[in-house]
Design a protein that fits this description.
Blueprint: H1 2-7, H2 11-48
């Protein structure tokens, strides 16, 4: 309410909200992409080395 009162419902407020949310969204996408890329590789290598699978 305070932000809306100070800046009004203009395009500036929308740009500000997007600018604040964008880094979090990009970080979330990067985490998902890295997890999908490296977890299968980790599982493959872990099952390939039976001596380390007991850890």
């Amino acid at each position: 309410m305070v932000v809306a009162h100070r800046s009004g419902f203009s395009s500036d407020l929308y740009v500000f909200n997007i600018a604040c949310a964008l880094p979090g969204i990009l970080l979330l996408i990067a985490r998902v992409v890295l997890a999908q890329a490296f977890i299968p590789l980790y599982r493959e290598r872990r099952t390939a080395l039976p001596a380390l699978s007991n850890l």
